[in-house]
Specification:
With 412 residues, the chain is α+β, with helices and mostly antiparallel strands. The protein folds into 3 domains: 98 residues, Nuclear Transport Factor 2, Chain: A, CATH 3.10.450; 132 residues, Nuclear Transport Factor 2, Chain: A (Roll), CATH 3.10.450.350; 119 residues, Distorted Sandwich (Glucose Permease (Domain IIA)). 21% of the residues lie in helices and 34% in strands. The strands form 3 sheets. Strands 12, 13, 14, 15, 16, 17, 18, 19, 20 and 21 form a 10-stranded antiparallel β-sheet that branches. A 6-stranded antiparallel β-sheet has the order 1-2-3-4-5-6, with helices on one face. Strand 9 and strand 10 form a beta hairpin. Helix 5 runs antiparallel to helix 6. The longest helix has 24 residues. The protein starts with a strand and ends in a 27-residue tail after the last helix. The chain binds zinc ion (ZN). The site of zinc ion (ZN) has 5 residues, from loops. The site of zinc ion has 5 residues, from loops. InterPro entries: Cell_wall_metabolism_enzyme, Csd3_N, Csd3_N2, Dup_hybrid_motif, M23ase_b-sheet_dom.
Length: 412
């Protein structure tokens, strides 16, 4: 646990005030309030967090079912913030994905909780470098962003044999968007376009609006696809970020797709992978979580029955029956709540399940080719200019952001 700042003087008060605006939520606080930044420990639940902080447990039990479901979305290892007056918890901000967080707040002698949007800003960067060690190490060293390195490698996995083809001195360039929260990297980067020069040949990969990677001619390069995990009647609730202004109304995020289907309908693994969890998980009831390749994870909730052989550590093939549809946990009727996570962040399953087109066509292709051409030029310019020295991570100068990464010597 790290205490960012205890502030009791007027100077700190001023800085702190700005800080709260950055957060956008922590509105009221005492002059002796302390803000803490902590990591959500493995196994910690909202209930144990309440217990630890002397928040009456009925605060949890009285939550709406949908909010309890969201409480199960807290990702262990993620950074959360708490505000204390001496030892009394005033507020807490606990992320449930890259866009939403749970806001726990004290109101009189009671506590409340709401899911609210996370305040962040994003910025586009262009980098280029020559390979000196390995693609992964070089990108991570330059940017301090291992997610960027693995996403880049992902983009070329199917078309480049890294061990055989990539040599010292080969060049690459990446155009990507990064989110920041409180001056630090936040969530995963979004690579828009990149090039890798191997064997005197530039390979380009462009991300289309559908989230998939394509080559310059509009051929889909995405190799890994998940399948729909059951035969369903209809989608009863879609994935939603719930980004609605808090003043206009409270809309909760829904971090998965709900498939309505009769009880006992077989549920099948959406892809090859390893079972991470099989058991009861709070509001989700009987739940299975499977870890797949490429940072994907799927979650199947409200199951009636989990197959006997599906246990933590079991390797499963795509399409293997893992259990049946039910309405365990907090559920109004039989359905499968299906969650999909990319690098720990909940994403819309439908987008990743859709049978991806192998090739773009018609108008869509036309507009893709135009933007691909622009990206190609920008990437070539970046390669020529050699932006190795152009470190993309600037320190945010706002008095209270104290670090960007562990070794930020060369981040200036
Ligand atoms: Zn659901």
């Amino acid at each position: 646990m790290r205490i960012i700042k205890g502030f009791k003087t007027a100077k700190y008060f001023k800085n702190t005030l700005k800080f709260w605006f950055a957060f956008g939520v922590f509105g009221t606080f005492s002059h002796a309030a302390t803000l803490q930044e902590s990591k959500w420990e493995q196994g910690q639940t909202l209930l144990t967090f309440f217990e630890k902080n002397a928040v009456p447990l009925k605060t949890y039990y009285e939550l709406a079912p949908e909010d309890k479901e969201l409480a199960d979305e807290i990702i262990s290892g993620s950074t959360y913030y708490t505000l204390y007056d001496d030892s009394t918890l005033l507020q807490a901000l606990i992320p449930i994905n890259e866009n939403s967080q749970l806001h726990v707040f004290k109101q009189g002698d009671k506590y409340g909780m709401r899911a609210i949007p996370i305040v962040y800003f994003s910025k586009e960067h262009t980098i280029s470098l020559s390979v000196s060690n390995s693609l992964y190490n070089d990108i991570t060293r330059l940017t301090g962003d291992s997610f960027l390195a693995s996403d880049f490698i992902q983009a070329y996995k199917g078309s480049v044999d890294f061990r055989k083809e990539v040599r010292k001195g080969d060049q690459l360039a990446i155009i990507y968007e990064r989110k920041y929260r409180l001056g630090k990297n936040f969530g995963a980067p979004n690579i828009k376009a990149s090039t890798l020069r191997v064997s005197n040949n530039n390979r380009y990969v462009i991300r289309h609006e559908d989230g998939h990677f394509y080559d310059l001619k509009g051929n889909n390069l995405t190799k890994y696809l998940l399948t729909v995990p059951l035969q369903y009647k209809r989608i009863s609730s879609h994935f939603s970020m719930g980004r609605k202004h808090p003043i206009l109304g409270y809309k909760r995020p829904h971090l998965g797709t709900d498939y309505a289907a009769p009880r006992h309908t077989p549920i099948r693994a959406a892809g090859n992978g390893r079972v991470l969890f099989a058991g009861t998980k709070g509001g989700y009831g009987k739940t299975v979580i499977i870890q797949h390749d490429n940072g994907y994870r799927t979650l199947y909730a409200h199951m009636h029955k989990i197959e006997r052989k599906i246990r933590t550590g079991t390797q499963v093939k795509q399409g293997r029956k893992i259990g049946t549809v039910g309405s365990t946990g907090l559920s109004t009727g039989p359905h499968l709540h299906f969650g999909l996570y990319k690098n720990g962040n909940a994403v819309n399953p439908i987008k990743h399940l859709k049978v991806a087109q192998s090739k773009l066509q018609g108008k869509e292709k036309e507009s893709f080719l135009i933007s691909a051409k622009n990206y190609k030029e920008a990437l070539n310019t970046a390669l020529r200019e050699d932006r190795l020295q152009n470190i993309p991570f600037k320190r945010v100068k706002n008095d209270y952001i104290v670090y960007l990464s562990k070794d930020d010597k060369n981040l200036n």
